[in-house]
């Protein structure tokens, strides 16, 4: 039995784990490590500190698919729809500019539920707070080093973290990359932004009717979602939640500042945009240093093979594009590499 390590319990890692289990079943032991305390990565859903409010999606907001992807990824959409993980997005989104023939979906339990669905289908051994710091080639295996100390050995390793975090790894990765591959990875560019989630008490009601709004008259804020309304949960008895995303120029300007120092600036601007907003009972701020991919790896099939034996592949949205369908494409392409190698 081959032992495969997938680094990253985000969307790409979870779909890759699920596909690998379905294709190779008991021929493979799948282990997933993530440095965070929970699954989701940039599709994570944040729980409020008290149980009286709804959760909030701090990263990805909803899933948009084109007719071509709706067809080629039909099995993924129908699986998530029939499991109740996805539902058509029905709320009003002010300022949304998109082609008429694309479809939007939301997740009643939050975007993290998509990732959790695929992880649970994968039957993988899942370990959180496992921060990979180095990869060392040892004959036909990879020895993988954790920040907390200790090393483990695997027959194949799949890296799904943002590209700059791949390039920071100690050990043999940098040496194994060809000059061309290094240039391709160095060229990947991400946007950066801050996200703020506000959690309200069950008595609070928003005075506006939209579920989400793209903001055009602010340098700071570009998007606001009445997150619980976006997910059709407003009448469920819990307090509503609201999410704010800052613009890319604002994110870049304040990138090196602590989120605690930036949060008041965002809240002041939110108050200007929505002066009637009730007082939240709690607030959470997140800095997304690597938010969405602006320039992906050029001429790439969805993954990059660093070494064939023992296999080391990199994937994720940077190897395709920065949304649900991009992660599915990357996971499918990594699956081909894994099947060929194992
Ligand atoms: C603010 C924002 C809004 C977005 N909006 C949308 C949207 O509306 N619709 C949409 O489809 N997409 C959206 N996206 C993009 C989407 O979220 C991403 O394309 C997708 O989540 C990327 O998944 P991934 O698995 O490739 O990477 P990630 O989600 O980044 O997963 C990588 C994982 O690796 C872990 N990791 C990193 N380094 C290490 C290490 N050294 N050791 C162990 N673990 C490590 C991380 O903790 C993370 O969990 C948005 C993203 C952001 C940030």
Could you explain how this protein is built, in words?
With 342 residues, the chain is an alpha/beta fold. It has helices spanning 11-24, 67-72, 74-82, 112-122, 163-167, 173-176, 179-186, 227-230, 248-253, 259-273, 324-341, and strands spanning 2-7, 28-33, 45-46, 56-57, 63-65, 87-88, 93-94, 103-106, 125-127, 132-138, 141-146, 151-154, 156-159, 170-171, 189-190, 193-199, 212-214, 221-225, 241-246, 282-288, 293-295, 303-307, 311-315. A six-stranded mixed sheet has the order 9-2-1-13-23-22. The protein has a six-stranded mixed sheet with strand order 7-17-18-19-16-20. A four-stranded mixed sheet has the order 12-11-10-14. The model has no long low-confidence stretch (mean pLDDT 96). Flavin-adenine dinucleotide (FAD) binds at residues 7-13, 33-36, 41-43, 59-63, 131-132, 160-162, 165, 193, 195, 245, 288, 291-292, 316-317, 322-324, 327. Residues 95-332 form the Amine oxidase domain. One of its GO terms (molecular function) is oxidoreductase activity, acting on NAD(P)H.
Question: What is the share of helical residues?
Answer: 25-40%
- Morphology: globular
User: Strand percentage, roughly?
Assistant: 25-35%
Which hetero ligands occur in this complex? flavin-adenine dinucleotide
- How many angstroms separate the termini? 9 Å
Number of strands: 23
Mean pLDDT: 96
Q: Strand count, sense and closure of the main sheet?
A: 6 strands, mixed
Task: Look at the helices and sheets and give the structural class.
Answer: alpha/beta
Give the strand order of the largest sheet, numbering strands 1, 2, ... along the chain.
9-2-1-13-23-22
SS element count, helices? 11
Low-confidence runs of at least 5 consecutive residues: none
What is the C-alpha radius of gyration, as a whole number of Å? 20 Å
